[in-house]
Amino acid sequence: MSVTWNDNTPIYLQLKERVVAMMLDGDLNPGDALPSVRQVAAEYQLNPITVSRAYQELVDETLVEKRRGLGMFVTEGARQKLLASERNQFLTNEWPLVVERISAWGWTSMI
User: Fold this and answer.
1) Residue 52: other Cβ atoms inside 10 A
2) Whether residue 85 has pLDDT greater than 90
3) Separation CA 98–CA 8 (nearest Å)
4) How many Å apart are CA 87 and CA 10, to the nearest integer?
5) What is the phi-psi region of residue 69: left when phi exceeds 0, alpha when psi lies from -120 to 50, beta otherwise?
6) What secondary structure, in 3-state letters, does 33-63 show?
7) Which of 70, 74, 91, 94 is the most buried (most CB within 10 A)?
8) What is the pLDDT of residues 61-76, one digit of tens each?
């Protein structure tokens, strides 16, 4: 599979966001193992340190857990935690802009 990386964002963050998207989409569920660092590094032609950094961020956010000798696994409640964060981000950053635009158009009865 061919992947195009954005030059404006560090690759480890882009990789992390891909894993987060897979959790939100239901492609990765609680208890599912993430592909190994070596596997991802080889598949996407990345430095293993880059992959490790992305995975460590997921561990730091308690979205995945390390199981010594077994790998990384999606934690229980990871999807719910991500959905709550997405909702909060939308309500804090995006919704006020939507309301402002609706008001500017005179559609205040829709709010």
Assistant:
1) 16
2) no
3) 26
4) 24
5) left
6) ECCCHHHHHHHHCCCHHHHHHHHHHHHHCCC
7) 74
8) 999 999 999 999 999 9
What is the per-residue pLDDT across 37-57, written as a single tens digit (0 to 9) for each? 999 999 999 999 999 999 999
- E strand or H helix at 65, and its extent? strand 64-67
> Cα–Cα distance between 84 and 90 in angstroms, integer?
10
- Please report, as a single letter, which amino acid is at residue 52: S
For the chain, list the domains and their CATH numbers: 11-110 (1.10.10.10)
Backbone φ and ψ for 35, nearest 5 degrees, come out as -60, 150
Amino acid making up residue 106: G
Model pTM?
A: 0.77
Q: 9-41 as b/e, with b when 16 or more CB fall inside 10 Å?
A: eebbebbbeebbeebeeeebeeeeebeebeebb
Mean pLDDT across 94-108 = 86
